[in-house]
Amino acid sequence: MLKDKFKSLSLAGIAIFTAITLINFPGEVLNASERGLDMWWGTVFPSLLPFFITAELLIGFGVVRFIGVLFEPIMRPLFNVPGVGGFVWAMGMASGYPSGAKLTSRLRQENQITKIEAERLVSFTNASNPLFIIGAISVGFFHDEQLGVLLAVCHYLGNAIVGICMRFYGKNSQEIPERSSGRLSIYKALQELHRTRLKEKRPFGKILGDAVINSVQTLLMIGGFIIIFSVFTKLISIIGIATIFASFLAIGLNILGIPEQLALPMFSGLFEITLGAKLISDAEVNSLFFQAIALSFILAFNGFSVQAQVASIIAETDIRFAPYFFSRILHGIFASILVILLYKPLYTNQQAGSEKHMPVWSQIHAQPWADAVHLLQTIGPLVTLCTLALSICILLTRTNNAKAK
């Protein structure tokens, strides 16, 4: 009872605090809202929409079941999740967070995975996409594409290590996962695809329309969280709360040998990744090594903004948030350690060596990534507006058809 009362008072206090600061700083709030809106409709919406719609179609047509059977011999021994986890993992890395949570929730709703398997899966399938790591952060903020290679390798390798660690989570649970033969069977995979397609009674137009509507609804929710956390991060910075907490964080960073100048940028990055990355790039630190460690941690932590999005998505299922939050801390630690271990071979040595001696995978040039980010920001708002208009037309058509019946 006392705990519930404390929770009620805390939530009420946060709401009152937010309302008062919104009234006192209208100009700063408007600027922060515009920044969040620009990020959402110019980058997040157009970059995630194709992946969300494609994933919905692949699930509806049974392709995900097909992939699941093929990847079962790989995903089960490594991560103790069904083969469909390979699809979620790949889509999560390609499109970025919170795609992993979205797809995991869909698979759970389809009963293709158990509750424990879903909690394992969501813990390592929410990653930043390469365009954001290399294009937006490394090239956009640091003007250094080689830094992007280091961050990407540490980010994705750290995520895989988290997945291997989380395979032991819920090992003693009562859930009994579906057993597989452990052998690759294309014939069985095709049978599962056909069986799943036959179960789907919706016509193609209905499936496509549902995919668009569901994707837009999720992206609208994501946009709301981005704007809210953009405003909240700005408010705690204005009134000095961020500085107070950053001073405590600086003590811990000093113990680890990391410059205290990175405390405030890292604290900001714990709330919103893009803002934190920008502040880290502007920090007056003598060595890029420490900036890379800080960047790697906040990328792996996901930021409270992304975590709130994930919590909202999985709230529609029985998937618990705690394993995901624990895995974010674990990923941050692993990714930071990997930067320490790989900074010299993947960054220092590559910078010192001539281009002809670089391995093929490290010859990433800044211009294509910068052009991709610029193109997305240019056409992104138009894509967002057109998609919103299309979804409204679909909803109106369905409403009129329902009335006609």
TrEMBL record:
Membrane-spanning segments: 47-71, 78-97, 147-169, 207-229, 235-255, 287-304, 325-343, 378-397
Ranges of residues in domain Nucleoside transporter/FeoB GTPase Gate: 43-141, 219-314
Keyword ATP-binding: no
Pfam families attached to this UniProt entry: Gate
UniProt keyword terms in alphabetical order: Membrane, Transmembrane, Transmembrane helix
Alphabetized InterPro entries for the sequence: Gate_dom, Spore_IM_YlbJ
Matches recorded under NCBIfam families: spore_ylbJ (TIGR02871)
Protein name: Sporulation integral membrane protein YlbJ
Source organism: Aquibacillus koreensis
